[in-house]
Amino acid sequence: MDKKTAPILEIKALKDSGEFEGYGSTFGGEPDAYGDVIAEGAYADSLAAHKAKGTMPKLFWQHNADQPIGKWLDAKEDDHGLLLRGKLNMDVQRGREAYALLKEGDIDGLSIGYRIKEYSVDTETGIWTLEKLDLVEVSIVSVGANENAVVQSVKAAKAAHDLMEKLKAGDRLTEREFEVWLKGLGFSNSQAERAARIHLKAQGEPAKADEGLDFLRALLG
What we know:
By secondary structure, the protein is α+β, with helices and mostly antiparallel strands. The chain has helices at residues 44-53, 93-104, 143-168, 175-184, 189-202, 206-220; strands at 2-4, 11-14, 19-26, 36-38, 58-61, 64-77, 81-88, 109-121, 128-141.
């Protein structure tokens, strides 16, 4: 499952060369606005894998893979969080724009894009502890431009977890719940909506149920 964090407003330094340093996320403490806590050591395996392959997470603008704006030079965990050192590409327009915005303090956020490998959920508080993450990219972001998308991606993942528990308990999902569950599993809007309609029609109709199963099998590959 791909996810992104809310922006961490902790860019520590910015040089004229375009080099900068900051935290992509922080460990422990109080849950963030979306009820998540990232455990210390959550990135260790992913960073080790990147090192073994000679790679680094990507540096994007606003989590947009079509807009790389430089590269990360170093990434490590300390007792505070995920500390990164990167360099903006000053030969591309978006890199220069990001530098100017950072320099003036107009934006100052970093946000990680990752896949969850291991996690636990406190059923009493609803707090997710993310224990092992596959770090894919770390973006420079503006809070206002990305806040809604981040909130929705995190909420969708949590909703999918809750609905999975409902299914395990033998409860039937509404069309809307079924659609939310599929989106949380990574299906596109159109795929989830079509599957939800088939699911609703299938209730009490064996032929439609078979059609729904065939459709879901095709989506799952």
